[in-house]
Amino acid sequence: MKTRLAALVAVVLASLVLVPAPAWAGDTVGDHLEIASRAEYSGEQVVSCQTPDGVKNAVYTLMQKDGKLYVSVEVDATTTVVVGGGSYEVRNADGSVSVTSVEGAGTVDMGVRYDSQDGAIEQYLGREAVPVDIMQGALRRARMTFDAETGALLRTQIYNSNGSLYCETRFVKFVPGEPAVAAGGGSTTQPLAAATDSDLPKKVAGFSELDLFTFNKDSVMAYYSDGLFSFTLLHSARSVQVAEIANAPEVKVGDYKYKRWFGPGQVVYVWDSEVGGLALLGDLPLDMQEQVLGKLPFPKKPNVIVRIIQSLFN
Amino acid sequence: MSHPAELLSAYLDGEVTPDERRRVVEHLARCGTCYVDLESLQAARAALRSLPILDLPVDLMPRERHRVVPLRRRPAVWVGAAAAAAAAFVALATTFAPAPGLNVTVNDLSRPASARASIDPSFSSAKVVLPPLPTFPEAGQ
Amino acid sequence: MAENIPLTWEEVARNHGRKIYNYAYRLAGNPHDAADLVQEVLLRVRRALPEYQPGSFDGWLWRITRNAFLDEMRRQARRPTVALPDDPDRFDLNPSPSADEALDSFRIGDDVQKALLSLPLEFREAVVMCDVIGLSYDEIALAAEVPVGTVRSRIHRGRKLLREKLV
Question: Using CB atoms within 10 A of its CB, is residue A297 exposed (0-12), middle (13-18) or buried (19+)?
Answer without folding.
Answer: middle
